[in-house]
Structures are given as C-alpha cells and as structure tokens.
Design brief:
Shape: globular
Number of helices: 10
Helix content: 55-70%
Structural class: mainly alpha
Strand order of the largest sheet: 1-2
Radius of gyration: 19 Å
Length: 227
C-alpha cells in the first residue's frame, strides 16, 4: 500500500533502518539494563515526574486549541501532583479522577487548520509529518527540562533518562511489531498517521471525504504492498 502523502518513502526507509540499528545496538540494551537495575516502583515514580511536567504543555496546548476545560484539568493535575503527589512522584490527580490529556504543538497546528504535509521519519525521533516536525520544534523551545536546567551534565542526564523511560514503555510492543508486521515501514507509517488523526479529533475523527483524498490511502491494485 502506498500513501499519497509519502513522497519521501525511499529516504524514510533509510532513516528507519538507521533508527532500528541505533535502537538494537544502543537504546534497547540500555533500556533493558534500566529495567533490570531499577525496581518497577522507582521507574513508575520517574515516569510520573516526567508526566507531571508534560501536563504543563498539555494545558497550554489545550488552551491554544480552544478547550479551556481540558486546559484547566491539566493545570489542576499539575497543582495536585506537584503538592500532594510530591513533585509528581505519585499521580494523585489520576487517583482523584482528574482526566489526563496528551497534547502537543503538532496537534495545535492541526486544530488551527495547518495541513499535516508529507509523512517523514526523523533520525532518532522516528515517525512524523512536516507539521508535527514543526510542532516538535516548538515543543523543544518551551521544554522546561531543557530550557530551565543550566547545568549541562544534569540536563543531558535528564534528557537521556526521559528517552530511556519512553523507550521502556514500548519494549513489549516492539517485539510484537517485529513478529507481526511483514512490512514494518508501512505498518508504522499507517499506524502513526491514523493515531495522529484520531488524536487531532480527540478520538472521534470524521469520515474521510473525497476532498480529503490527500489523506486517504491509495488502494489501487498497482500500488498495493504486502503488509
């Protein structure tokens, strides 16, 4: 299957191969060591702290998207988890029933009507689109953990820990992907585009219409791939 919004497929596949090798020989072994050394309770606490910081950006992006209630919920989460949750170590807000959201500038740009553009695979970062890549740039520029930590070794350690923590969430699913996907590239691309579209519409995307053809997979027989 070939996606009309994937004009850079050849380059994307090369970058995916690079990312896979980097993951196989460096990131994945380090992540497994991380899971082996640290107890589950400690890893959960670390993840909660990063998640608490992320709620600040969720609140900002929900506000920019015109969703004040969701923005307020995110802000409440930050206050509750920072105080009662001891800096976010314990997710007290979820225990209290305060809904968590997941928003970023890529989604915000989409709500503003900016088209997603071609699909692309970024070195280290993985699947993206032109719009999401621009959004990621804004995410980085407003990242507290990067901008507010002056000590370079501490900042680098924090960034590395966050990357390893994120990778740890997908250790099991990556094994499943390797065994299930005949064409890993197509599987990841299609799943990413569908997931981002779903998130853009808060889990309730409208039906594709003919005028939205550029976002629609091309199922013509001459373009089919084995998946």
């Amino acid at each position: 299957m070939r996606i009309k919004k994937d004009p850079w497929e050849e380059t994307n596949r090369t970058v995916l191969s690079f990312n896979d090798n980097l993951d196989d020989y460096i990131i994945r072994p380090v992540t497994k060591a991380y899971e082996y050394v640290l107890p589950s309770l400690v890893r959960t606490a670390i993840r909660n702290v990063f998640s608490n910081v992320g709620d600040v950006y969720n609140s900002v992006n929900n506000l920019l998207q015109g969703k004040p209630k969701a923005a307020l919920d995110d802000l409440v989460r930050v206050v509750v988890n920072t105080t009662i949750g001891l800096g976010g170590i314990w997710d007290a807000a979820s225990a209290a029933g305060v809904e968590k959201h997941s928003e970023d500038f890529g989604q915000t740009f989409g709500v503003w009507g900016i088209p997603d553009g071609p699909y692309m695979v970024l070195p280290l970062l993985g699947p993206s689109t032109v719009r999401d890549t621009a959004g990621w740039f804004f995410d980085i520029q407003t990242d507290i953990l990067i901008k507010q930590i002056d000590n370079i070794p501490l900042r680098n350690t924090t960034t590395g820990l966050r990357i390893i923590d994120q990778r740890a969430k997908y250790l099991g699913s990556s094994d499943l992907l390797e065994s299930a996907a005949l064409d890993k590239y197509s599987f990841i691309r299609d799943a990413y585009l569908q997931r981002r579209r779903s998130k853009l519409y808060d889990g309730n995307p409208p039906m594709m219409e003919e005028e939205d053809e550029e976002n629609t997979p091309d199922y013509s027989s001459e373009n089919k791939r084995i998946r």
